[in-house]
Amino acid sequence: MAGVSIEAGNSLVQRIKPLVKQTRRTGADGEIGGFGGLFDLKAAGFHDPVLVAGIDGIGTKIKVAQAVKKYDTVGMVRCRFLLIVGIDLVAMNVNDVLVQGAEPLFFLDYYACGKLNVDDAVAFVKGVADGCIQAGCALLGGETAEMPSLYAGDDFDGAGAAVGAVDRSKMLPRKDIQAGDVLLGLPSSGCHSNGFSLVRKTLEHAGVSYDDPAPWDPSTTVGKSLLAPTKIYCKAFLAAHKEGLIKAASHITGGGFLENIPRMLPASLTARVHASTWKAPSVFRWLAKAGNIQSEELAKTFNMGIGMVLIVSLQNKQSAISALKHAGEEVYEIGKLERRDEGTSQCIVEGWDVWTA
User: Fold this and answer.
1) Could you tell me how many helices (H) and strands (E) the chain has, helices first?
2) Full-model pTM
3) Residue 37's pLDDT is what?
4) Are 162 and 104 in contact (CB under 8 A)?
5) How far apart are CA 311 and CA 268, in angstroms?
6) Domains of the chain, with CATH numbers?
Protein backbone atom coordinates (compact mmCIF):
# COMPACT_ATOMS: atom_id res chain seq x y z
CA MET A 1 0.00 0.00 0.00
CA ALA A 2 2.86 2.41 0.83
CA GLY A 3 4.66 1.59 -2.41
CA VAL A 4 7.66 0.07 -0.61
CA SER A 5 8.74 -3.50 -1.43
CA ILE A 6 10.14 -5.42 1.53
CA GLU A 7 10.77 -8.42 -0.74
CA ALA A 8 12.92 -6.33 -3.11
CA GLY A 9 14.94 -5.07 -0.15
CA ASN A 10 15.58 -8.57 1.11
CA SER A 11 16.57 -9.70 -2.38
CA LEU A 12 19.02 -6.81 -2.62
CA VAL A 13 20.74 -7.76 0.65
CA GLN A 14 21.27 -11.33 -0.56
CA ARG A 15 22.64 -10.22 -3.93
CA ILE A 16 25.13 -7.71 -2.53
CA LYS A 17 26.58 -10.00 0.18
CA PRO A 18 29.18 -11.49 -2.20
CA LEU A 19 30.14 -7.99 -3.40
CA VAL A 20 30.67 -6.80 0.16
CA LYS A 21 32.68 -9.94 0.99
CA GLN A 22 35.17 -9.07 -1.77
CA THR A 23 36.13 -5.87 0.12
CA ARG A 24 37.23 -7.60 3.33
CA ARG A 25 40.55 -6.50 4.76
CA THR A 26 42.50 -6.99 7.97
CA GLY A 27 40.44 -5.50 10.79
CA ALA A 28 37.07 -6.00 9.11
CA ASP A 29 35.88 -9.58 8.90
CA GLY A 30 32.19 -9.35 9.73
CA GLU A 31 29.12 -10.00 7.61
CA ILE A 32 26.65 -7.30 6.59
CA GLY A 33 23.17 -7.45 8.03
CA GLY A 34 23.81 -6.39 11.61
CA PHE A 35 22.93 -3.07 13.18
CA GLY A 36 26.52 -1.81 12.97
CA GLY A 37 29.88 -2.68 11.48
CA LEU A 38 32.99 -3.47 13.50
CA PHE A 39 36.61 -2.62 12.78
CA ASP A 40 39.66 -3.72 14.80
CA LEU A 41 42.34 -1.00 14.69
CA LYS A 42 44.86 -3.12 16.58
CA ALA A 43 44.54 -5.95 14.08
CA ALA A 44 45.10 -3.41 11.29
CA GLY A 45 48.50 -2.57 12.77
CA PHE A 46 47.98 0.92 14.23
CA HIS A 47 49.83 1.85 17.43
CA ASP A 48 48.82 5.44 18.23
CA PRO A 49 45.94 5.98 15.78
CA VAL A 50 43.95 9.08 15.02
CA LEU A 51 40.68 8.43 13.19
CA VAL A 52 39.90 10.57 10.12
CA ALA A 53 36.36 10.60 8.74
CA GLY A 54 34.81 12.12 5.64
CA ILE A 55 31.30 12.24 4.23
CA ASP A 56 30.17 13.26 0.75
CA GLY A 57 27.72 12.64 -2.06
CA ILE A 58 28.06 12.31 -5.81
CA GLY A 59 26.56 15.68 -6.71
CA THR A 60 24.74 16.48 -9.92
CA LYS A 61 26.83 14.00 -11.88
CA ILE A 62 23.94 11.74 -10.87
CA LYS A 63 21.72 13.70 -13.30
CA VAL A 64 24.09 12.77 -16.13
CA ALA A 65 24.01 9.11 -15.11
CA GLN A 66 20.22 9.14 -14.98
CA ALA A 67 19.98 10.73 -18.42
CA VAL A 68 22.57 8.47 -20.06
CA LYS A 69 21.05 5.35 -18.52
CA LYS A 70 17.92 5.92 -20.60
CA TYR A 71 19.85 5.28 -23.82
CA ASP A 72 20.73 1.72 -22.75
CA THR A 73 17.76 -0.50 -22.18
CA VAL A 74 18.85 -3.95 -21.05
CA GLY A 75 20.44 -5.64 -18.05
CA MET A 76 23.80 -4.61 -16.61
CA VAL A 77 24.59 -2.59 -19.75
CA ARG A 78 21.90 -0.18 -18.63
CA CYS A 79 23.24 -0.32 -15.07
CA ARG A 80 26.93 0.33 -15.77
CA PHE A 81 26.44 4.04 -15.26
CA LEU A 82 25.16 3.36 -11.75
CA LEU A 83 28.29 1.31 -11.15
CA ILE A 84 30.39 4.30 -12.17
CA VAL A 85 28.72 6.70 -9.74
CA GLY A 86 29.23 4.08 -7.02
CA ILE A 87 32.96 4.30 -7.69
CA ASP A 88 32.69 8.10 -7.70
CA LEU A 89 31.08 8.04 -4.28
CA VAL A 90 33.96 6.08 -2.77
CA ALA A 91 36.58 8.18 -4.55
CA MET A 92 35.25 11.52 -3.34
CA ASN A 93 35.39 10.30 0.25
CA VAL A 94 38.59 8.27 0.40
CA ASN A 95 40.62 10.92 -1.44
CA ASP A 96 39.53 13.47 1.19
CA VAL A 97 40.54 11.13 4.02
CA LEU A 98 43.81 10.34 2.28
CA VAL A 99 45.12 13.92 2.25
CA GLN A 100 45.11 13.95 6.05
CA GLY A 101 47.70 11.17 5.80
CA ALA A 102 45.16 8.50 6.72
CA GLU A 103 44.78 5.04 5.24
CA PRO A 104 41.10 4.47 4.37
CA LEU A 105 39.84 1.56 6.47
CA PHE A 106 36.13 1.23 5.86
CA PHE A 107 33.22 2.73 4.00
CA LEU A 108 29.46 3.09 4.58
CA ASP A 109 27.06 3.82 1.74
CA TYR A 110 23.50 5.12 1.44
CA TYR A 111 21.27 4.61 -1.61
CA ALA A 112 17.88 6.34 -1.83
CA CYS A 113 15.28 5.95 -4.57
CA GLY A 114 11.59 6.27 -5.33
CA LYS A 115 11.09 2.64 -6.38
CA LEU A 116 13.71 0.02 -5.66
CA ASN A 117 14.98 -1.58 -8.86
CA VAL A 118 17.16 -4.37 -7.51
CA ASP A 119 19.37 -4.54 -10.61
CA ASP A 120 20.08 -0.81 -10.39
CA ALA A 121 20.84 -0.98 -6.67
CA VAL A 122 23.12 -4.01 -7.12
CA ALA A 123 25.02 -2.13 -9.85
CA PHE A 124 25.45 0.85 -7.54
CA VAL A 125 26.71 -1.31 -4.67
CA LYS A 126 29.03 -3.15 -7.06
CA GLY A 127 30.50 0.23 -7.99
CA VAL A 128 30.94 1.06 -4.30
CA ALA A 129 32.59 -2.34 -3.73
CA ASP A 130 34.89 -1.86 -6.74
CA GLY A 131 35.89 1.56 -5.39
CA CYS A 132 36.56 0.08 -1.97
CA ILE A 133 38.78 -2.60 -3.50
CA GLN A 134 40.76 0.11 -5.33
CA ALA A 135 41.07 2.06 -2.08
CA GLY A 136 41.95 -0.98 0.04
CA CYS A 137 39.07 -0.39 2.44
CA ALA A 138 36.19 -2.57 3.56
CA LEU A 139 32.56 -1.92 2.72
CA LEU A 140 31.42 -2.27 6.30
CA GLY A 141 27.73 -1.53 5.91
CA GLY A 142 25.11 0.62 4.25
CA GLU A 143 21.49 1.60 3.94
CA THR A 144 18.95 1.45 1.14
CA ALA A 145 15.90 3.68 1.38
CA GLU A 146 12.84 3.35 -0.87
CA MET A 147 10.87 6.59 -0.58
CA PRO A 148 8.28 7.09 -3.35
CA SER A 149 6.99 10.26 -1.69
CA LEU A 150 10.42 11.94 -2.06
CA TYR A 151 11.84 10.56 -5.34
CA ALA A 152 9.90 10.46 -8.60
CA GLY A 153 10.29 7.82 -11.29
CA ASP A 154 13.86 6.55 -11.66
CA ASP A 155 15.35 9.34 -9.53
CA PHE A 156 17.92 8.23 -6.98
CA ASP A 157 20.68 9.64 -4.83
CA GLY A 158 23.73 8.27 -3.08
CA ALA A 159 25.91 9.32 -0.19
CA GLY A 160 28.68 7.72 1.78
CA ALA A 161 31.21 8.08 4.54
CA ALA A 162 34.79 6.87 4.76
CA VAL A 163 36.79 6.35 7.93
CA GLY A 164 40.56 6.04 7.94
CA ALA A 165 43.34 6.06 10.48
CA VAL A 166 46.82 7.48 10.70
CA ASP A 167 49.44 7.10 13.40
CA ARG A 168 49.72 10.44 15.15
CA SER A 169 53.31 11.03 14.03
CA LYS A 170 52.35 10.70 10.35
CA MET A 171 49.41 13.12 10.20
CA LEU A 172 49.30 15.66 7.38
CA PRO A 173 49.89 18.49 6.78
CA ARG A 174 53.30 18.49 8.45
CA LYS A 175 54.63 21.53 10.29
CA ASP A 176 57.85 21.79 8.25
CA ILE A 177 56.23 23.10 5.06
CA GLN A 178 58.38 25.97 3.77
CA ALA A 179 59.16 28.20 0.81
CA GLY A 180 61.01 26.27 -1.88
CA ASP A 181 58.98 23.10 -1.42
CA VAL A 182 57.75 21.56 -4.67
CA LEU A 183 54.18 21.01 -5.88
CA LEU A 184 53.54 17.69 -7.60
CA GLY A 185 50.30 17.10 -9.51
CA LEU A 186 48.62 13.73 -10.01
CA PRO A 187 46.43 13.64 -13.13
CA SER A 188 42.66 13.34 -12.99
CA SER A 189 40.52 11.12 -15.21
CA GLY A 190 38.38 14.08 -16.32
CA CYS A 191 35.75 16.10 -14.49
CA HIS A 192 35.62 13.63 -11.59
CA SER A 193 32.48 14.60 -9.61
CA ASN A 194 32.68 18.37 -9.60
CA GLY A 195 31.36 21.21 -11.71
CA PHE A 196 28.53 19.24 -13.27
CA SER A 197 25.97 22.00 -12.83
CA LEU A 198 28.17 24.17 -15.05
CA VAL A 199 28.84 21.24 -17.40
CA ARG A 200 25.12 20.58 -17.86
CA LYS A 201 24.40 24.28 -18.41
CA THR A 202 27.14 24.50 -21.04
CA LEU A 203 25.87 21.41 -22.88
CA GLU A 204 22.36 22.87 -22.93
CA HIS A 205 23.65 26.22 -24.19
CA ALA A 206 25.62 24.46 -26.96
CA GLY A 207 22.68 22.26 -27.96
CA VAL A 208 24.65 19.07 -27.32
CA SER A 209 22.97 15.94 -25.95
CA TYR A 210 24.47 13.06 -24.00
CA ASP A 211 24.19 10.55 -26.86
CA ASP A 212 25.95 12.85 -29.35
CA PRO A 213 29.59 12.14 -30.27
CA ALA A 214 31.71 14.11 -27.80
CA PRO A 215 33.00 17.29 -29.52
CA TRP A 216 36.26 16.84 -27.59
CA ASP A 217 36.54 13.08 -28.37
CA PRO A 218 34.43 11.79 -31.29
CA SER A 219 35.40 8.19 -30.47
CA THR A 220 32.86 8.20 -27.63
CA THR A 221 29.62 9.89 -26.66
CA VAL A 222 29.25 12.97 -24.48
CA GLY A 223 27.61 10.98 -21.70
CA LYS A 224 30.13 8.16 -21.61
CA SER A 225 33.05 10.60 -21.63
CA LEU A 226 31.64 12.70 -18.80
CA LEU A 227 30.91 9.62 -16.72
CA ALA A 228 34.52 8.48 -16.52
CA PRO A 229 34.88 7.43 -12.85
CA THR A 230 36.73 9.62 -10.38
CA LYS A 231 40.30 8.49 -9.85
CA ILE A 232 41.24 6.89 -6.53
CA TYR A 233 44.77 7.80 -5.47
CA CYS A 234 45.24 5.54 -2.44
CA LYS A 235 47.82 3.05 -3.70
CA ALA A 236 50.34 5.57 -5.03
CA PHE A 237 49.76 8.15 -2.30
CA LEU A 238 50.27 5.68 0.54
CA ALA A 239 53.38 4.25 -1.11
CA ALA A 240 55.02 7.69 -1.02
CA HIS A 241 53.58 8.70 2.36
CA LYS A 242 54.83 5.57 4.12
CA GLU A 243 58.35 6.58 3.07
CA GLY A 244 57.84 9.99 4.70
CA LEU A 245 58.07 11.84 1.39
CA ILE A 246 54.83 13.87 1.48
CA LYS A 247 54.50 17.03 3.56
CA ALA A 248 50.91 17.91 2.63
CA ALA A 249 48.25 17.14 0.05
CA SER A 250 45.12 18.67 -1.43
CA HIS A 251 42.27 16.87 -3.18
CA ILE A 252 41.18 19.13 -6.06
CA THR A 253 37.39 18.99 -5.89
CA GLY A 254 34.72 21.71 -5.77
CA GLY A 255 36.52 25.04 -5.59
CA GLY A 256 39.26 23.92 -7.96
CA PHE A 257 42.85 25.03 -7.42
CA LEU A 258 42.10 28.44 -5.95
CA GLU A 259 40.13 27.15 -2.97
CA ASN A 260 41.58 23.69 -2.33
CA ILE A 261 45.33 24.26 -2.47
CA PRO A 262 45.27 26.97 0.28
CA ARG A 263 43.58 24.47 2.64
CA MET A 264 46.90 22.64 3.10
CA LEU A 265 49.09 25.75 3.50
CA PRO A 266 50.17 27.82 6.50
CA ALA A 267 49.08 31.46 6.21
CA SER A 268 52.66 32.58 5.52
CA LEU A 269 53.01 30.73 2.20
CA THR A 270 51.67 30.96 -1.35
CA ALA A 271 51.52 28.19 -3.94
CA ARG A 272 52.57 29.28 -7.40
CA VAL A 273 51.17 26.88 -10.01
CA HIS A 274 52.29 26.90 -13.64
CA ALA A 275 49.40 25.77 -15.87
CA SER A 276 51.74 25.07 -18.79
CA THR A 277 53.41 22.15 -16.96
CA TRP A 278 50.65 19.72 -17.90
CA LYS A 279 48.12 19.48 -20.71
CA ALA A 280 44.54 20.06 -19.60
CA PRO A 281 42.20 17.35 -20.98
CA SER A 282 40.31 18.38 -24.09
CA VAL A 283 36.93 18.28 -22.32
CA PHE A 284 37.93 21.32 -20.27
CA ARG A 285 39.13 23.23 -23.32
CA TRP A 286 35.82 22.54 -25.05
CA LEU A 287 33.80 23.59 -22.00
CA ALA A 288 35.81 26.83 -21.77
CA LYS A 289 35.13 27.69 -25.40
CA ALA A 290 31.50 26.50 -25.64
CA GLY A 291 30.51 28.09 -22.34
CA ASN A 292 32.69 31.20 -22.66
CA ILE A 293 34.14 30.30 -19.27
CA GLN A 294 37.03 32.48 -18.19
CA SER A 295 40.27 31.03 -16.84
CA GLU A 296 39.64 32.19 -13.28
CA GLU A 297 36.24 30.51 -13.19
CA LEU A 298 37.80 27.32 -14.59
CA ALA A 299 40.41 27.43 -11.80
CA LYS A 300 37.66 27.81 -9.18
CA THR A 301 35.38 25.09 -10.57
CA PHE A 302 37.25 22.23 -12.24
CA ASN A 303 40.37 20.18 -11.54
CA MET A 304 41.65 21.00 -15.07
CA GLY A 305 43.40 17.64 -15.27
CA ILE A 306 45.03 17.54 -11.83
CA GLY A 307 43.06 15.61 -9.22
CA MET A 308 45.51 15.81 -6.34
CA VAL A 309 48.39 18.15 -5.45
CA LEU A 310 51.22 17.07 -3.15
CA ILE A 311 53.86 19.12 -1.36
CA VAL A 312 57.32 17.56 -1.12
CA SER A 313 60.70 18.99 -0.22
CA LEU A 314 63.09 19.87 -3.02
CA GLN A 315 65.50 17.31 -1.58
CA ASN A 316 62.90 14.52 -1.69
CA LYS A 317 61.32 15.50 -5.01
CA GLN A 318 62.93 12.78 -7.12
CA SER A 319 62.36 10.09 -4.50
CA ALA A 320 58.69 11.06 -4.27
CA ILE A 321 58.27 11.04 -8.05
CA SER A 322 59.95 7.63 -8.24
CA ALA A 323 57.76 6.17 -5.48
CA LEU A 324 54.59 7.47 -7.11
CA LYS A 325 55.57 6.23 -10.57
CA HIS A 326 56.61 2.85 -9.21
CA ALA A 327 53.08 2.55 -7.77
CA GLY A 328 51.65 3.22 -11.24
CA GLU A 329 50.92 6.95 -11.02
CA GLU A 330 51.78 9.65 -13.54
CA VAL A 331 53.30 12.77 -11.95
CA TYR A 332 53.80 16.40 -13.01
CA GLU A 333 55.95 19.00 -11.29
CA ILE A 334 53.49 21.90 -11.39
CA GLY A 335 54.97 24.62 -9.18
CA LYS A 336 56.47 25.55 -5.84
CA LEU A 337 55.81 27.34 -2.57
CA GLU A 338 56.87 30.93 -1.94
CA ARG A 339 56.72 33.35 0.96
CA ARG A 340 53.39 35.14 0.90
CA ASP A 341 53.24 38.89 0.60
CA GLU A 342 50.56 40.66 2.59
CA GLY A 343 47.25 40.76 0.73
CA THR A 344 48.20 38.22 -1.93
CA SER A 345 46.34 35.02 -2.71
CA GLN A 346 47.53 31.70 -1.31
CA CYS A 347 47.27 30.15 -4.76
CA ILE A 348 48.53 31.91 -7.86
CA VAL A 349 48.01 30.13 -11.18
CA GLU A 350 50.29 31.41 -13.92
CA GLY A 351 49.76 30.90 -17.63
CA TRP A 352 46.18 29.73 -17.23
CA ASP A 353 45.29 31.28 -20.58
CA VAL A 354 46.52 28.00 -22.13
CA TRP A 355 43.22 26.51 -20.89
CA THR A 356 41.16 28.80 -23.11
CA ALA A 357 43.56 29.08 -26.07
Assistant:
1) 11, 12
2) 0.91
3) 78
4) yes
5) 15
6) 6-170 (3.30.1330.10), 182-355 (3.90.650.10)
